[in-house]
Structure formats: structure tokens, C-alpha cells
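Data card: per-record layout.
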Amino acid sequence: MQKIKIKYVCTNCGFESPKWLGKCPDCGSWNTFSEEKVSKTKNNQQTSLNIKPVKITDIKIETEERIITNIGEYDRVMGGGIMKNSITLVGGDPGIGKSTLLMQVADKINKTVLYVSAEESANQIKQRANRTNINNEHLYVLTSPEVEIIIEKIKELKPELVIIDSIQTIYLSSLENSPGTVTQIKECAQTLIQEAKSKGFCLIFIGHVTKEGNIAGPMVLEHMVDTVLFFEGDKNLNFRIIRSLKNRFGSTNEIGVFQMTESGLVEVKNPGEFFLSDEMEEVNGSVVTAVMEGSRPILLEVQALTTKNNFGIPQRVATGFDLRKLSIIVAVLEKRLNLKLSTANIFINMVGGIKIDDPAADLAVCCGIISSFLNLNVKSKIVVVGEIGLSGEVRAVTDINKRISEAEKLGFETIYIPKQNFKNIEKKFIINVIPIKNIKDITKDIFYSN
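The structure for this 450-residue chain is written out next.
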């Protein structure tokens, strides 16, 4: 009897070890090693001695060909459509709408599409198609987890787009490992990617996520694909955001906004209105800012709440905002404005659950905390934009003209911007643009006492 060999593989980065380790020496993660059987697979890659280096001046750039999905928000995130012969990985929480979105994409492109599902039956997929009004004769469904069968059907059908739902549930029968293990994920993905590159079709993988919110499987999987999209949003709310984390054919950090309805996902063409309250009145602790998501300006309501801490360590809670950045802002307000925030609980919320990395939201967070702590209401129809420095100065931000235009378009009357940006305004706006140099300057204008 042949002895089965065992190896231990890090589920985070794919590092292999002959024995179990508590900490991965490659990526530094703890308790990520899983036991797998060693499988002998043939390497089908062939090297050719006829391949020669080519001068860069002799290389001709081919015209980019993209498949337009006619779903504007999805095309925006992809950089103008699905690049032909490209590989995409789409991740997101269970039930967030990944399968629904890609079914709608398959329906809109009017090309031959093979939808491979290893999780659902054909009857379940048909029920979703009926619910979302999908009835496209060019869309084929295959419910098989075996990669060998999938490749065989691809050769017969010759589709222009193949969707795999999901990469963690398919397997190569030549491997002894279970579906979802690092070895299966890597080998299945590599096999299908080679098939896509050789046959010239587009390939989209749907990926599960871990409890930490990362795409399950080794990080090498994200390096194997051309584009990585992440679907986010609260399942209890009716909006979804698809974000580009990696894109070899377009801009990263672009987002597309969708609204979940009974008949599927509907694109939100003006997300600025979506993230604002219906009636923006004078509200304690609520401030509007203009942030950039990729090339798109979005107006967002920032809410702050401060309460007296009666015992223990004061809480610092931030939803959609960096908690470390919040600590810095609190320290600046204590030092520069003499606010006694060390004994206060502080809560920050980006309305709609959107996660913000743009430093231009700093000023709105500052104003929200001041408003709530001093019980001062914020005047209506104003927008504040700016990054806060450690000395309390308001620092310049990017794309100031786009931010001003968006605020003006949505009917706001005044926008406060960094003084350094004021000289970069390219045209005369109807909205009142007020430059500010320091956090102290804005506190004189935007508040009024109850």
C-alpha cells in the first residue's frame, strides 16, 4: 500500500511546509495552516526555444476590445466594459448579490455566455432568472463542479464569457484534495485561466469571503487575475457597492452603486442624492462632505455623536471611517480648540455604510464632533471639504472642481474648501465658495447655538 504524503499549506498566501506551523513564515498570519494530501500533477506547460526577445519599438499596440454590458455602473468599474480575453475575480459576503449581478451582466451583453454553478441547481438558477426578468437564449447554464467537464462543455459551446460560481466549489478530479483547499483553488484557477487565454474567452470567478472580509483562498489567486472586484454593503439595506481593488485595464478604487429590488439590482446613476437625507435641515452632529471615489465625486452625510462617559475608558467607534484617523482628529481638537474630549464617548457614522478613505472627509468629522459636543446645530445647505493636519490647518485635497460642481448640482448654497485649493478653481460657480485656512476659521460660520 502506497503511503499518503501530507503537506501543510497556508490558506492565506499558499506557503507550503512539511509540518504544521503556528505562524506562517511568509505572510506572518497565525493559525492558517491546513493539512492537505500531496498530489502529483503533470505540468502541461511547454517551453519553446523559438521565443525571442522583441525590441519595444517593434511592438505594435493592438486596439482595446471590450464587451459593453450596458450596465453603466458595472462598465464604469471595469474601466469601460469587460476587456476581451480578461480574467476577473468578484468577491463579497454571502447573499450580497454577486450571482444576481453577474446573471444580469450575462443577460445584457447579448453574446454566448456559459454560467457554471457548483452550488445551485438549474431549477434554483431558473427561479432567480424569472425573478430578475432574465430570458436570454444566449445564456447557457451548467451545474457541474468538475473542471474537466466544464472545459469539455466550453470546447463544445465556444462561449465568449464564462462565469464560475464559485471558484471554491469546483475541483479537478485528478487531485485528491477536497474542493476549497488551497491546492484545488490554485490548480482549478490556473487550468481555467490557461483555457481562457488559449481559446480567447472572458472568464469571471465568483469568490467566497472569509469572516475577516477577505476573499477566501490564497492571495496568489488575486495575482493570477486581471481584475478584482469586491461587492460590499449591508444586506439589511437596499444598496450595494461594487468596488475595483485591482484593474489592469482601468482605474482602481472606482465604485459602482446599485439598489437591490425585488426584480434584481438597479444601478444608481447619481449616488450623491442616494447617500443624503431627503430633507437636509439644521441637525446637531450632521455634516455633508464631498469625497472622491475613483474619478467620481459623491456627497456624503457624516454623523457624529458624543456622550459623557460615566465609567471606564471612553469609547471610540467609527463606521465607514478609519478609527486611527479618528483618534488623531480627536487629539487635534483637544489640543487646538481646547475641547475636553478625553472623557467623552465619540461615535462616527458614514451614512449608507460606505467606507471612506478620502482624507477630504476629515473636516466634516471635525465639525460633526464639535457640533455634537458643544450642542451647536450645523446650518443647512453647506458642504465642508478638507484634510486636517496636526496643527489644525486645513490641507488641500484633489479634484476640487469636481467636488464643487457636484455640490452645486445638488442644490447646496455654500461649500468650505481649503485655502490652498481656492487658487485652483477653474471657473465661476453659482455656489458660494469660501476658503478656510484653519479649523478655527470654520467654527465661526457654520454653527449657530440652540
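Known properties of this structure: Residues 127 and 133 are 10 Å apart (CA to CA). The radius of gyration is 26 Å.

See the next section for split statistics.
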